[in-house]
Give the backbone structure.
Amino acid sequence: MLTSLTPEQELALEAYAKKGIEIGLATGPEMDEALVREITDKHRILCDIPAATVFKVYDSPFAAIKDNEGLTNANALYGQHDINWLMHYQFFRTECGFVEETNKIVHLMELAKRVGWMWMDENTTIVTRRPKSIHFTSEKRETNGTIRDLKILHNPNGLALEYADGLGVYALYGQRLSKEYQWLVTENGKYTVERVLKITNAAIKTIGLRLLGPNALITIGTKINTWQSEKGGLYTLYAVQINGNTRVYLHGECPSKHEPFCEAVPPDTKTCQQALAWREEEVDFSSYTEPSLRT
C-alpha cells in the first residue's frame, strides 16, 4: 500500500497536470477513424465486450444524442473530458508501479488524446470529434485556499465551445447559458440594461450586467451625491430602480487599475463617504477618513 510520494514523484505531478490540461483543451476535428475504431475495440475486449459490429462518428455529442435513441450525457464516456481522472491513474501507473491495477485505463488514455465523447453498447461504438474551437477568459479564483488564474469558458461574440457541425455551448464568465439566456451572446450590443434587469436568475443577471460594463447601471440611475476625493478621484452615488426596488450604487474609478467600478452599497446610504466607509468596513459609517495613499 502506498502511503506517501517521494520528492521526485511530487515534482512529477505538475507535469502530469500540465499534460492533462493540454489534452482536455485540445481542439481539431481531425481523426484517424480506423485507428480509433481499433482502440475502442481493444477497450471493449478488455472489458469483456465483443468488438463492435457498428461504428459511428459524429462531429459533436449533440448530433450523436439527437440521432441515437438512448444516448444521454449521463451514459457517455467523455474521452478527452475524462482526462482529469485518467491522468490521475496514469500517474500512479507510470510513477508508482500500479500497472495491473490500472490496466483498464490504457486504451481510454489513448482515446482521450484523439476523440471527444463516446458511447458503447453490446454491438455499437459511437465516437465524437473534439471541438473545433474553445474560447476562454482568465479569472482569479480561490481553490483550496490558493488564489489561481483559471481559464473559464467565455465568449461574448459566439459559441464558447464550438464543434465542426456548428453546435456547441454558449458561456459567459464560466457560466453556461441555457436557451432562455443565449440572447446575451447572440444579441450582444443590441439589448438594454432594462432588459437585463428583468432576468429573474440572479447569477445570469449579474453576468449580463458585468458584460454591459460598470457604467451600464448608472445610465438609468438618479444621482444622489458626488464627492471629489483627493486620493481616489470622483465618486458618485446613484439610486437605481430594479424590479420595483430602489438599489444604491457607488460609481468611481479603481485607483490601482484605473478602471471604472459600480458596486452596490446599503440602500440607506446617503453620501459617497458613507459608501466608502461601508466598503472599507469602517465602524462609523457617518464619517469617512480618506487613506493617505490608495493602491
Notes: The two ends are 52 Å apart (CA to CA). The chain has a mean pLDDT of 91. Residues 134-212 form one domain.
